[in-house]
Amino acid sequence: MAKQTRRGLLKNAAQAAIAAGGVLTAQQASAQTGEHALVKKDATGKSQTQFPFTSVVSLGNLLFVSGIGCRVPGTIEESTNWVLDELEKNLAASGSSLEKVLKVNLFMENIKEFDRMNAVYKKRKWGTVFPARNTTQPAALPTGDYGLVIDCIAYV
Q1: For residue 136, what pLDDT is reported?
Q2: Which domains does the chain have, with CATH numbers?
Q3: Full-model pTM
Q4: Does residue 152 surpass a pLDDT of 50?
Q5: If you count DSSP H runs as helices and E runs as strands, how many of each does the chain have, helices first?
């Protein structure tokens, strides 16, 4: 079996992501956006037309995942698990996983709950090293978010 080139591997990964649904082909993406491919639906298949953003944008083998906020009330532990589950779904739909996350931004409604959030966060199966991370408490989170919002950069 011939050794695949990096370009071939990326093409195969892109085709797998397309088969999983929600990703435009490279030709479609080029026609619409220039160089990067877009995931036009989130992991649940919902259209991203309500708000002016895309859930996941890729450039080369990098994925930029928009902030995911918890949509169900509960403890910070429950909120953290919910958001990380949703993040994993978006990554999987794009051909990636938590193990391929390079950078995380975490926005907490109450920074005093950091240790409780962090206990849940560090139990997830990340790569061989934890991703780089910022954790902050903004003045406010978008309406309807309970506890925290997480975005990330990963690779395919």
Answers
A1: 97
A2: 6-155 (3.30.1330.40)
A3: 0.69
A4: yes
A5: 4, 6
